Amino acid sequence: MTVELLKLEDEQRCKVFKALSEPIRLEIIRFLVKKGTEVTCGEIGDGVNLTKSAASYHFKTLREAGLTFTRKESREKYVSINYEAFEQFLPNLLDSL
């Protein structure tokens, strides 16, 4: 593995740890794990008691860290967990939530 590739992986790790350093984002991940499928942004916001703007900010942070996927269908956005990212960077974390 080259030094450049290691640096890229370290940058990604930093994004992952930063994204998960906020308790509400852990709560969002926990909510998604509990649901076990993709969920609308509104349903997540209601489930973890967030305003739309706050939820949007946290969804973006999780998505940019590669921990979630967001899919838009018509006017609705759906969020799901990127299980591969968790397995790569934090194996067994989801089981502990």
TrEMBL record:
Record bears the keyword DNA-binding: yes
Gene3D superfamilies xref list: Winged helix-like DNA-binding domain superfamily/Winged helix DNA-binding domain
Keyword annotations: DNA-binding, Transcription, Transcription regulation
GO MF entry, a single one: DNA-binding transcription factor activity
Superkingdom, taxonomy of origin: Bacteria
UniProt domain HTH arsR-type: residue ranges: 5-97
Protein name stated in the entry: ArsR family transcriptional regulator
Organism: Lactococcus termiticola
